[in-house]
Structures are given as structure tokens and as C-alpha cells.
Amino acid sequence: MAELRPSGAPGPTAPPAPGPTAPPAFASLFPPGLHAIYGECRRLYPDQPNPLQVTAIVKYWLGGPDPLDYVSMYRNVGSPSANIPEHWHYISFGLSDLYGDNRVHEFTGTDGPSGFGFELTFRLKRETGESAPPTWPAELMQGLARYVFQSENTFCSGDHVSWHSPLDNSESRIQHMLLTEDPQMQPVQTPFGVVTFLQIVGVCTEELHAAQQWNGQGILELLRTVPVAGGPWLITDMRRGETIFEIDPHLQHERVDKGIETDGSNLSGVSAKCAWDDLSRPPEDDEDSRSICVGAQPRRLSGKDTEQIRETLRRGLEINSKPVLPPINPQRQNGLTHDRAPSRKDSLESDSSTAIIPHELIRTRQLESVHLKFNQESGALIPLCLRGRLLHGRHFTYKSITGDMAITFVSTGVEGAFATEEHPYAAHGPWLQSQAAPWGPRELRESQVPELHRLFPQLHHNGVSVPRESIQELMHRGCLSPVSC
Description:
Layout: E1 2-6, H1 24-29, H2 32-44, E2 52-56, E3 70-76, E4 87-93, E5 113-125, H3 136-151, E6 160-161, E7 176-181, E8 188-190, E9 193-203, H4 205-213, H5 216-225, H6 244-247, H7 250-263, E10 269-272, E11 274-278, E12 293-294, E13 297-298, H8 303-315, E14 364-366, E15 370-374, H9 376-379, H10 382-389, E16 395-400, E17 406-410, E18 425-428, E19 431-435, H11 449-455, E20 464-466, H12 471-477
Parallel strand pairs: 5-9, 10-16, 17-19
Antiparallel strand pairs: 1-2, 2-3, 3-4, 4-5, 6-7, 7-9, 8-9, 11-15, 12-13, 14-18, 15-20, 16-17, 18-19
Helix pairs in contact: 4-5, 10-11
């Protein structure tokens, strides 16, 4: 639960908000991380020292449900001459370390990121006659913050968020989000590390799909060129009724399609409803590597497997680098190495109590045939996997959200893969790799991809099964059958 109040009004847990010229007594009492971010806000809005704030009544560190202590809301006049309309500017407080006493975030030093290293912002077009900012963006930001705190996955510029619902719970076409650097907020050095500001940008479903198939930065750049779709500062207009591709039909072919052909996609993996079965052996075969048990408990992904899969997803953003599946390094710990504390929970690690078998005791198995299962949304990304990733010599990973399975498709030439041209299907515990052998990116034909685009809209809503025929045979023959997944 939250309440709306001026940031300068006294609250149950925070003193009045000081600016750069605040009295020393206030400055000494005010949380240093919060004070540093307020300083950046005051630099940008010197005439609004006490903006309206949505405040968590019970703070997260006292057991409340909302991770963000505050969301400040400023009125930005924009710049009509530069096609920047007047809008409301929302800024969060809580994803970074505001206090420095380990009540929320572990303090790891001043040189690295503060907390998660970023705060969220959002720019909403001001409607004519609107005298106060709507408060629904604050709840949207709280929802994203809950995801970050619960999963420990951080956001980066160019990321997308599939929301599948109008952001303001209306009938709007703006139902998903991209993230980018805030055009005005500058990184802040706080006593507890550096804080950057990531801006939420509302987009239509067609724009989200284009970002998935190509890359988020490319779509953000297109949105900047269309004033009614965001303009230079990427201001969200919930009343926008047309996508950028409806406003300018040439953008799809001239920019997106050519971008996919030239650059591929920087989406290297997704969390998904997926599963796989080894058809090389009878189901009752107790040697199936996916059902190794310790006592009566099925095994989980080892920490090193989990680390490599996580690094696979992260490395996929480095679209200009040579495709590599990161080697498993026994010296590294779980958790992100350069932007999180090592003790933070790995977002790909299961919370279940099932047993973990040491990585060294799990042998890599070569499989003759496999059965892949995806739900419809996950299966619809297979054309993206082929066209945007494998055609460009890269890899793509599905990580199950319902268990500890993972499926990685690799093309020939990806270093660190245990699937090879000789053995295109290989499993390391519950992690399956499938290589597009004998086709590398040169041999994999573009003409086969539209066939998958044609087939996938017809899938049963429960999912799709990729039968025992290889991926190559699938592309040749279109062997798809609906299953419950």
C-alpha cells in the first residue's frame, strides 16, 4: 500500500527532502544514497523542491510489499520546438542502496554499483487540463521492482518487458515496455556506489515483436524519429493508436527486416515453458541423465551449469563479438561477477529442495533423438532463434520457468558448446544442446524460415512438440504436432 504526499512533507520514516543547499542538520540525518539522487533531481528541477511522491507506507525492509520507498513525480515542460511535449517525469528510489546499512542492499564498496545499480524513470505525456500526475506509473514501477528483487535479474538499456496488458489498465495499445537510458538524468556517484537511470518506454505489441526479432536499441532509435511515438525523449503516450509501422510502413522493411538480415537478433534467450525428452532410450531407462536421483529426489542444474547458461544469455547481447558459450570456471561463484555481490541469489537457480549433483559427476551424453516441447508463446520464438541467431552463427537458450531444464540451440562455430556436428544432440544433466549441424550459418537457408512463420500461428494453444526428427528435418518437412506442455 502507498500514499501520495509532497516529498517535503514529514513521513513516518523519512525527514524532509533536502536539496543541494539543505541545512547541515537535515543533510546529516537524511540517508546518503537518497540525498545523492535528490541532488540530481534538484539539478534537473530546481523550481520543484518538493514534488508529489508516492510513498510506501510500510517500507520493504520492514516487511512491506513495495520495494521502492518512493516514486517522485515532476512536471517537465518539454521543448515544443524540438517536438518534446509537456509530460510527467517519474523517478524511483529503492533499487539502489539508499541507506548503506545493509537493511535492503549489501554494501560492496563505492566503486561498483549501488544496490542493483540503477533506478527506474518514466515519462508520460501530460493530457490537456491535467493538473496532477496519474499515480498508476508508480505501481507499474513497483511491479518491475518486485520482479528485480525476487528474481535478482537486473535491467539494461535495450531490454524489453512483455507485459501483455495495457500499462494503465485501459484499452490502450501500449501493452509492453522497452528500457533505455534516461535522456536527462546523469549517473550519480553515491557513498554506496554508482546509480544510473533507466527509462521505461511503453510500446505496442508489434513494436515489442520487432525488438525481439531484431534488437531493442534499434526499435528505440526508430521510436525517437517518430514524434507521436516517443520522439527524442521517448515520452509514452497511452492514447497512441498506431504503431510506428502503421505510421510509416517503410520502417518494417527498410529498417527492421534489413537490420535482422544484417545484424541478427541480440535476444540470446528467454525464460519459457519448455521441456525435453530423450527418445534415444526407453522411458523406463533409469540411466536417463535427466532423472539422476540422490535418494528419492531428482537432480537439479548444478551451480556451474546454471552459471554457464546465465552467461550465455548475457553474452548474447554482445552481438559484435565472436559467439562463445562461456567456459565453466570453478573459481567463479554464482551471481553476476561485475555488477552484483557474489552472495546474491542466481536468478536461474531453483528454489526447490531437490538435490544438486556436483558438476564433475555429471557426464555429457550424446543423444540420437529428442522430443522438444514448448508452449505457444515460446514456440513462436523459434523463427527468431533461426533467423536472428543461428543464421548469424550465434546461440539461443530456453530456460524452463517450471523446472530445472534448459535447451540451447547452437550453430556451428560457437565455442564452448558440447553439441557437435558429429553429435548434434548432447545433454549435460537437464541442459540440452542442439546444433544446427550439418548446417552452419552459411548453409541454413533463409527460405526455410518463412515456413516456420507460417506454421506457428496455427499451433494449438497448449503448445507445440518438435518430434524426434532433427531440427534440420523439421525445417524441411514442417513436422509439428500439438501437445500439452
